[in-house]
Amino acid sequence: MKSRWIACLVTLQVTFALYLLAFLSIHSFTMGQYQWSESESANSAVTALYALAKQRLPVALEVKFAEFPVAIIEKHGKDLTVSGEPSRTGTPASTSAPVAASGSAAPVPAPVVATKSTLNTSKIVKEATFMAAADDLFGLLTDPQRIPSWTRAPAESAAKADTPYSLFGGGVKGRYLSLMPGKEIVQTWALTSPSWPSEHEATLTTTFEQSSDSTKVTFTLAGVPKGMEDELERNIDGYYIRGLKSIGYVQLIVSPAYTQPRRVSRKSRSHVPENKGDVADNKAATAVAIAVVVLAAAFCLPYFTYSPISLRSFAK
């Protein structure tokens, strides 16, 4: 039913176009028959202008009218697909060849070439230190058999320059630009997301710096669209760094080195000035201690002066 309605609509459009072409073609035959009238009070200048218009105006109008069928078809007939040949066989040819109008032709505008707009971008850097060898971490990020262990999703990777790769089940795609085992990975990086600009690619550079017992990994993502820095920084931290931690690669937190306090010799202590408040507190504590000792001695002294007999009678 729907196809019948479409066929009827196309037939009506074609019929309308043919009727319009026929009308224009008939008008092109009769356009040479113009009615001219001139005022009797016209002077010689008006008469000369009248004669010039009567001679050249019909030719110019014929040229302009002859352009109408082509312009109409080009403008409104592009959606008609009746046959591969143009349907103009029923249009009679003009009896008079069109003559180019005097003066220069109107300039044809040049086609507009779509240019790719410049995208404002920035760069983000994330660092992490793992208790693992650089070669081991390099293999985890490039080996297609080991990548799913930390991404928890299918991956495609040939680990060769100028080859495509796919991570997180197609969530991240790109191509390897250069690979230095245990040293550096340079790759294009594009996020499969509606928020990511179409046909835009960033560049992810991953470097490995191995020390005696750990390896520092630096993720540098250049070409990040403005406004997406926080989101992509969370993605690098959440999917890459935490993904490696989830399979047992411990991330080290680098803290400032511990400095052992310097021992002060007795000789040097004598030159250190003491706090006056501390000196006063020490003197007060000493005075209290002496007072307590004196009171205790005064209380116990009578017991030491009595004889044993006196002590027994005192006890009774």
Automatic annotation (TrEMBL):
Alphabetical list of InterPro entries matching this protein: ASHA1/2-like_C, START-like_dom_sf
* Pfam families tied to this protein: AHSA1
Residue ranges of domain Activator of Hsp90 ATPase homologue 1/2-like C-terminal in the record: 132-246
The UniProt keyword set, sorted, is:
Membrane, Transmembrane, Transmembrane helix
SUPFAM superfamilies for this protein:
Bet v1-like
Q: List, as start-end ranges, the regions of compositional bias called Low complexity.
A: 89-104
Lineage: superkingdom: Eukaryota
Membrane-spanning segments: 284-306
Positions of the region Disordered?
81-104
Per the similarity annotation, which family is this? Answer: Belongs to the AHA1 family.
The protein in question is named Activator of Hsp90 ATPase homologue 1/2-like C-terminal domain-containing protein
